Amino acid sequence: MSDIERDEPIEETLETADGSTEVEETTDEAVAAEAVDAPVEDEAEVEIDPYEDFRAELRGKLGKWYVIHSYAGFEKRVKQNIENRRVSMGIEDDVLEVQVPMEDVVEIKNGQRKLVNRVRIPGYVLVRMFLNEDSWSVVRHTPGVTGFVGNAHNPTPLRFEEAFNMLKSLVEPKEVPVAKGATAAKGSATQARSIPAEVDFEVGETITIKEGSFAGLPGTISEIKPESGKLTVLVSLFERETPVELTFDQVTKL
């Protein structure tokens, strides 16, 4: 029987430069080592739009969005008036939807924080409609409406992004995972919705410090930081103005 016909394991040999031979290893460990050494592509991080569902819903709606002027403080009443008139005048198929964008704002007065819900764009109401002579007349002659934004008789509708930016405050954004590598807040795995703060302080205004090392001293506001709830106040010390960082509740208005 020839050597090839024997049922014995065969080792593949390689001839080296000095004529000796080496056995090429083909073990599982070698294969695994190659796999470890091979570069691994990082998974692409896909940015998630928290308003993705709302965008899709908005794109699917019929008609166009138009902006109308109203008296400030009467936006909600105008909305109700248009909704009533579209029914009583039988044009529900032309005037489709009326919205007054709202927003949550933290108002800070005399150091006290209060969450309020207010009209986002005072004096304006959004109407989704098919513009024609009847729909224009019903909306334009609604009590409280002072006119359409743009051309009075042939107004220009909002572009999609304009309508989206004005209306997105009507919905809660979808919770999205914190980006890979980002540090999440303790006890939270999602990004929190930030609420803008509105303050009744002004740069250049004189205040009195009521807490801390400078309690009782007057100061002048040089910078306002609504996001962190802090002020930079110039305090006169030793005939020099010294900047001091204070929280809203550490000062009081004169």
From TrEMBL:
InterPro entries in alphabetical order: KOW, NGN, NGN-like_dom, NGN_dom_sf, NusG-like, Rib_uL2_dom2, Transcrpt_antiterm_NusG, Translation_prot_SH3-like_sf
Domain NusG-like N-terminal: 62-170
Function text: Participates in transcription elongation, termination and antitermination.
Regions of compositional bias (Low complexity) in chain numbering: 29-38
Disordered, as annotated region: 1-38
Protein name listed in UniProt: Transcription termination/antitermination protein NusG
Phylogenetic placement of the source organism: Bacteria, Bacillati, Actinomycetota, Actinomycetes, Micrococcales
Family per similarity comment: Belongs to the NusG family.
SMART domains linked: KOW, NGN
